[in-house]
Amino acid sequence: MENVTKDTVIKGTAVVPGVRYAKAVWISPRPELPQAGEVVDEAQREAELERFITAADAVAARLLDRSSKAQGAAAEVLKATAGMVSDRGWRKAVRKGIQGGHPAEYAVVAATTKFVTMFEAAGGVMAERTTDLRDIRDRVIAELRGEPEPGLPDVEGPVVLFADDLSPADTAALNTDLFVGLVTELGGPTSHTAIIARQLNVPCIVAVGAKLKDIKAGEPVLVDGSLGTVTLGSDPEVAKLAEQESKMLAERIAQWRGPAQTKDGHRVQLLANVQDGKAARIAATESQAEGIGLFRTEMCFLTATEEPSVEEQAAVYKKVLEQFPHSKVVVRSLDAGSDKPVAFASMADEMNPALGVRGLRVARANEDLLTRQLDAIALAAKELGRDENSPTWVMAPMVATAREAKWFAGLCAERNLTAGAMIEVPAASLMADKLMPYLDFVSIGTNDLTQYTMAADRMSPQLAYLTDPWQPAVLRLISHTCKEGKRFNTAVGVCGEAAADPLLACVLTGLGVNSLSAASTAIAGVGAQLAAVDLETCQKAAEAALDAEGATEARAAVRAVIQPS
Ligand code: PEP
Ligand code: MG
């Protein structure tokens, strides 16, 4: 493996933008895990169980205490972690181990491994929760041994915190005056670390890989949360200047107010991507979003074992709709399957789930599942008295053919719902002229459109160079979709991660996209960038990107036309 030397740049997944220059500090070590082998005498097992319960209760109480002193998402994460230590299923598995003769420490390891394996098999969002499980395991083991709690070290700051993976509890307790940046070896953009880092607005990079381990505590590092890079051996003067510029940009972004438009007044609607009522509330109260551009309904049901009734679903959807009572909300019908398993709407054991029965395809064999969801959306909108001033749009994921678009639009029309389709399968873009006559709008899902255009699994860290929405092949499909949108007078939005990248947002605007939907936290950065350019510059940037040889060249070509604001 390549060594990390001076002037080395290592790359991970960018989560929260911002440049910081400070010394690296590593998180306090996790306890050594005990091995199997030791057997506790039968007479001692009851006492061993008591010892476990006391330790687990102490850990839960400490987390709850911290939760009561924290706020917002941080408080909720700490409470949820405390809840996991008290989880009946997990405690029962530990109890069984102790009753079977294992010492408490080993019983904790075995029970946790069982749950981690289960969560990893479920994949997707569930797999990302395994960090929480390992964290409670380590805290309880340290408590059982009377060792200090693993986690954040005592520092005088400012420092950049390095970790294999941060536990939610550590991230939630973070003092951002001391810990000015976060870098993790593992984790993903939707892990708890990433969620809290966004809330705390601390520059953050995840999934750097094993190379991170070569960076020693005390080494000065330049962390760029927009590029996802950690640089060693930077000139301190240059690094400090970069840090200052990034802070100035952050201030300009904080001051930006919508609605979004380019310097010469070309309007672009900026909307939020949400997965539940809580995220919608944050979008409504803490961002400049004009509405919701993507409500991922499947995320509400990841843990549901049975399909909720129409009324139950309507209650869930109302929580999102009511946050934007006077604006557009785009609800996506269930996108179950592949990396988002929904127990009541996913195929079991497909050979290739990303190319399998997911999204709208699930409804082909079970139309009632879709019509009940559409009924629930219509019911929620009706009960809230929504009308043309607060339009409720519905779109289907994974549409590939005009026939599918027609079928979905027909079901929506029966319920007076405005129908759209996601353009995330290349075929849907290429056949846009055949789909659009049936639809009121389309929304381009660049995450999947990139995955399917480049034939590269969006979950694969090795293929990140391909799963990049700057790939000109993807931009050409978007360009084609926009041209057809203009011809058929069909609104074209983008709701994939591409919409969160300020420079790419200019390219998309230049291509003719009417609305951009992204995580709430990304909206101001996009708005501030659009305000700094005129439409003609966006169009020139778009031409340059379309004509580039690859994603890297496209970025460079656009940077030559547009300086980051
Ligand atoms: C997309 O594919 O770009 C998209 C927005 O949908 P999801 O990420 O939920 O698959
Ligand atoms: Mg998608």
UniProtKB/TrEMBL annotation:
Catalysed transformations (reactions): L-histidyl-[protein] + phosphoenolpyruvate = N(pros)-phospho-L-histidyl-[protein] + pyruvate
EC class name: transferase
Listed cofactors: Mg(2+)
Ranges for domain PEP-utilising enzyme mobile: 157-228
GO BP annotation list: phosphoenolpyruvate-dependent sugar phosphotransferase system
Domain called Phosphotransferase system enzyme I N-terminal: residue spans: 11-129
Residues binding Mg(2+): E424, D448
Catalytic machinery residues: H192, C495
Record-listed E.C. numbers: 2.7.3.9
Subcellular locations according to the entry: Cytoplasm
Residues where phosphoenolpyruvate binds: R296, R332, N447, D448, R458
GO MF, any single term: metal ion binding
Alphabetic keyword roster: Cytoplasm, Kinase, Magnesium, Metal-binding, Phosphotransferase system, Pyruvate, Sugar transport, Transferase, Transport
Residue ranges annotated for the PEP-utilising enzyme C-terminal domain, each copy included: 258-533
GO cellular component: cytoplasm
Alphabetical list of NCBIfam families matching this protein: PTS_I_fam
Family: Belongs to the PEP-utilizing enzyme family.
Protein role: General (non sugar-specific) component of the phosphoenolpyruvate-dependent sugar phosphotransferase system (sugar PTS). This major carbohydrate active-transport system catalyzes the phosphorylation of incoming sugar substrates concomitantly with their translocation across the cell membrane. Enzyme I transfers the phosphoryl group from phosphoenolpyruvate (PEP) to the phosphoryl carrier protein (HPr).
Name of the protein: Phosphoenolpyruvate-protein phosphotransferase
Provenance organism: Corynebacterium vitaeruminis DSM 20294
